[in-house]
Amino acid sequence: MNHEKLKIVILGGGTAGWMTANLMAARWKDRNIHFTLIESPDVGIVGVGEGSTPSMQNFFHEIGVEESEWMPECNATYKNGITFEGWTSIPGFEKYCHPFPSQMDIHTFPKFDNNCQLRRHNFDVEAHPDRFFLGSYLSQNQRSPKANHNFPFDHPNGYHFDSNLLGSFLRKKAKQRGVEHLQRHVSGVIQKENGDISSLKFREGEIIEADFFVDCTGFAGLLLQKTLKVPFINLDKVLFNDTAVVVATPVNKDDLNSQTKSTALKYGWAWDIPLTNRTGNGYVFSSRYCSVNDAETEFRTHLGLLDADVNVRTVKWKQGRLEKSWSKNCLAIGLSQGFIEPIEAMALHLVYNSIGHFITEFESGNFSNQNQQQYNSINDRAFDGVVDYILAHYRMNSRRDTDYWRDNAENQNITPSFLAIVQSWLGASQNNLADEIKKYDTGSFFPLASWQILFAGYGVFPPPENVKPQNIGNQSVNMDELDNFIQRCGSNYSSHLESLNTLKQLAK
Ligand SMILES: Cc1cc2nc3c(=O)[nH]c(=O)nc-3n(C[C@H](O)[C@H](O)[C@H](O)COP(=O)(O)OP(=O)(O)OC[C@H]3O[C@@H](n4cnc5c(N)ncnc54)[C@H](O)[C@@H]3O)c2cc1C
């Protein structure tokens, strides 16, 4: 293939499509590649996906966009982590925060680790994660992740944003980088004898040819699933949620959260994502256990909107992923590659990582089979690692109020890696948790600390029969000193609202 004339078509103008266009156009700005992004004027974007991890900071950094440029335009806010409420019925563990990691954790994580070890050996020490991490403090005190000048430690942060506005912003940026944008509905795909895609046919009859295609068609899965017939691995036995009802409500501007809230309900959980102009809410549930109508009633009750005249939208999905996300001359990015469910807001993180891996593989071997295989295996492992961590939210729950929660707690459709990790934490195996995470390579997105925070945040510790007498000493942490340390660090971060107002000023 002649690189000098490479033509890449990105099919789909959702967040995945526009992220792909921006990243490829930025990284390959010195190569002679023509990018065209095509989106249907009739098929809208999924329009959810409003929370991110810190990977989005890297994304914007790579495409050279400052927060002051994009955040005010997308009604975006900062996110320091996620607070989970009501996922367990164990007293004292009604809620916990899963913060993003920060440099300050160097000082506090060893203390958390120490107390977790003690607690797992039945010592009565504080092991709830909330008092051990600066990110939890910032989340719970509506603080910004941006530190004052005299404290040179910004806290890595994710974002909340309006996905439609983000799409428009990224479209503008990609077009400035020379990406061609066509609004056409693709009605046919033409393949070569070897199965490669040669061109796409528009409904109007026109044809567009390319060397390589990126399938960003969302749940339509037009190229890899429908055309190349790449099998889909269904995960509905592992993870039950397949539907969400979604509604916006006014935001409390005086008390703007800098975290996502995730509250367990009877058949799933509800998100609360604060933007500068509204709060995004959704109830993610399993249609096997609850009808859309019943979910909407429970959700409206939860939000105090039972009789309110608001439009509640339903979104459905199939849990799982493609057997391989790069096949022939086509790569699936975003929802067309697969989707697990929204908890932990990992989908755009996977999008960013997948594009990065693809670019690396492409640069080292172009379209060789070896590079394709390597890409698929790295990508699959990353996706499956996320599945394990998400599964833990359900499998470890101690709610017993509905069949949904009982069945989740007893679910036997679990992966060997998940089982090994849980058994090591619960003392049911001799293996060390960190070693298990490393062995199964599940820690690329959720490292040891994330797993410990989840288990300890749920109040799940080894049952007495698994506690082996061991001489580990009882050097428990002085919690008052730790509280003081975290509060003093935390006092260097301004209020969330103040920080967003500063961005607005910079944008003017
Ligand atoms: C309920 C829910 C909550 C979520 N929450 C989060 C979250 O908090 N954080 C997160 O990271 N992710 C989240 N996600 C995932 C996130 O929404 C998606 O990863 C993200 O929006 C990217 O979607 P996409 O671009 O792959 O697909 P879409 O947005 O669906 O875009 C598909 C594109 O393909 C085009 N298209 C389709 N068919 C054709 C055709 N025949 N011809 C031409 N064009 C076509 C459409 O026009 C559209 O432009 C959530 C998903 C769901 C379902």
Automatic annotation (TrEMBL):
UniProt key word Flavoprotein: yes
Residue positions of the active site: 79
InterPro entries listed in its UniProt record: FAD/NAD-bd_sf, Flavin-dep_Halogenase_NPB, Flavin_halogenase, Trp_halogen
Pfam families named in the record: Trp_halogenase
Residues involved in FAD binding: 13-16, 186, 335
MF terms (GO), sorted A to Z: monooxygenase activity; nucleotide binding
Alphabetically ordered keywords of this record: FAD, Flavoprotein, Nucleotide-binding
UniProt key word Nucleotide-binding: yes
UniProt binding sites for L-tryptophan: 344
Residue numbers binding 7-chloro-L-tryptophan: 79
Listed PANTHER family: FAD-BINDING PROTEIN (PTHR43747), FLAVIN-DEPENDENT TRYPTOPHAN HALOGENASE (PTHR43747:SF4)
The protein's name in its UniProt record: Tryptophan halogenase, putative
Organism from which the protein derives: Paraglaciecola arctica BSs20135
Lineage: Bacteria, Pseudomonadati, Pseudomonadota, Gammaproteobacteria, Alteromonadales
